Amino acid sequence: MATIYSSDLKLSIMATGENAGTWGSITNTNLYLLQQAIGGYQEVSIAGGAQTTALVMSDGALSNARNAVIKLTGAITGNQVVTIPNSIEKTYIVSNGTTGAFTVEFKTASGTGVTFGTTDKSTRIFFADGTNIVDTGTVSTSGTQTLTNKTLTSPSINQINDANGNEEIIFTSTASAVNELTIANAATGNAPSIATTGGDTNISLTIAPKGTGDVNVDADTLRVGDSNADATITTNGTGDLTLSTNSGTNSGTIKIFDAANGNIEVTPNGTGVVKLDGLSYPTADGSANQALVTNGSGVLSFATPASGSNVFLASTGAGSAVSSADLNGYFTSDYDVYEIFIVNCIASSDQTLKLRFATTGSYTVQTGNDYNTSQNYNYDNSTGISANGYSSTSAYQLVHIGSSTNFSTTSKIILFKPTSTSQKKNIHSFTLGNYSGTRYFTNAAGYWNSTTAVTGVRILPDSGTITYDNIYLYGIKNS
Q: Which SS3 state, helix, strand or coil, does residue 464 take?
């Protein structure tokens, strides 16, 4: 009787009484074949270009398709197909040990199989069902598998790739890390969240683009602040902060400069204007001594003040005691009359408050005995004394001034044509003062006996210091 072989492993099947004297040898061969099927390992080279490599399962003889583990090797330069004979039912462990970025398909001769991707150099477990090769889906350490309904508990992951095998998310580690990122989904009507959590109490979140890249937030509204707390938008370091639209294209800007006493610039685009509370502001500076005026419809512009109008020019405030207060560089031929207001002035001790003129840009004060003052005093005391006086000294005498915080001194001073080079400089002042606890009113007039043009004014006491809320300078516009 002819020898019969099994359909899957091709083992010799002996009939009763057959192979007398040789059955031991045949049985040993079958045991070797079983050994190969259960634990056999063989490396099969498939090096070369695109081709099909057929593994064989020979009857009653050791064959490469019978091995339990098959490692495919070699440098491949094209897509490969590896086949096993049809009608075999067995399991395989197949390792793709080739080099080269090409696919490798493991299949039956006439059926379908499983394909290793171009970069998939993993080891997989297959089974042949007699028709096709089927992937068991067993997860390997280096294979590319799709996990469905799997729970990973505290996995260590370095990188997550997309469906094409390219980097999607890369994880980096920090030694002894205690802070982390928590991502939470949300029920209907609520927003998912990305939050910093961990061992520290207050943890910032850093989002860092590469190089000069930007952080883009695809939303119509960007909200900042936590639980109704005050919010701050600031730069990370000493850079300036600029607000614009469309990456600055056809956009005005608001720029906050990072510096001590830094500016805030509001710049419209093109012919646009700056609007604050419905008022449109001019986009260019006016001429010297012009003022902002409105057209009554919310549009402001620079215009020359009308003749006789009182124009604010300058002010100076003293938060602490000073030896003098200066107003310099504001006197021009645009104004023949100037008014100076001194508000709540107090001296360090009982003194006389005085005025002197400057005639140069470096503020050289004129101190010669060329200031002539005529004064009328009205005392506020039980006697109601009035007095008159005249002096020719090194300064115009405004008023006696005391140190009492309850009785400060307030004064209005009028200067007539201080920039004239042909006339002496007339002065008129009205002062409500305090001296040694007595309140009085002083009405004074005088002149500086010089035709030199005045460039500045200095207010000062005889000695010591003064404090005051403010000193204001106004000019009455010429006709």
A: coil
Residues 284, 409 share a domain: no
Identify the three-state secondary structure at position 309: coil
Please check whether residue 150 lies inside any domain of the structure: no
pLDDT in tens, 228-276: 888 888 998 899 998 888 888 888 899 999 989 899 989 888 888 888 8
Nearest alpha carbon to residue 117 among 181, 151, 166, 159: 166
Choice among 14-28, 102-116, 243-257 with the minimum mean pLDDT: 14-28
Domain of residue 61: give its range. Answer: 4-135
Q: Determine the Cα–Cα distance for residues 331 and 474; give it in Å rounded to an integer.
A: 10
CATH number of the domain at 452, please. Answer: 2.60.120
Q: What is the pLDDT of residues 351-368, one digit of tens each?
A: 888 999 988 866 667 777
Give 303's Cβ-side CA count (13 Å radius).
12
Distance between CA atoms of 470 and 410, rounded to whole angstroms?
Answer: 10
Higher pLDDT residue, 363 or 340? 340
Show the tokens assigned to 198.
Answer: 């961990």
Select from 107, 109, 52, 118 the least CA-distant residue to 80: 52
pLDDT tens digit sequence for 33-51:
899 999 999 999 999 999 9
DSSP helix/strand/coil, 466: strand
Q: What is the DSSP string of 341-384?
A: EEEEEEESSSEEEEEEEE-STT--B--SS-EEEEEEEEEESTT-
Domain stop point among 135, 158, 176: 135
The separation between CA 434 and the C-alpha centre of its own chain, rounded to angstroms, equals 56
**Residues 280 and 347 grouped into a single domain:** no
Least confident among 32-41, 182-191, 317-326? 317-326
Q: Residue 389: which pLDDT band, with cuts at 50, 70 and 90?
A: low
In a domain, 283, yes or no: yes
Q: Are 338 and 455 part of one and the same domain?
A: yes
Written in H, E and C, the secondary structure of 19-37 is: CCCCHHHHHHHHHHHHHHH
Instruction: Give SS3 for 39.
Output: helix
pTM of the model: 0.50
Q: Of 276, 304, 332, which residue is a domain's last?
A: 304
Give phi and psi for 405, each to the nearest 5.
-75, -15
Distance CA 394, CA 367 (A): 5
Instruction: Round to whole Å and give the CA distance between 51 and 250.
Output: 60
How high is the pLDDT of residue 145?
Answer: 67
In 81-159, which residue ranges form alpha helices assigned H by DSSP? none
* Beta bridge pairs of residue 335: 477
Q: CA 379 to CA 441: how far, in whole Å? A: 7
Residue 112 corresponds to which amino acid?
A: T
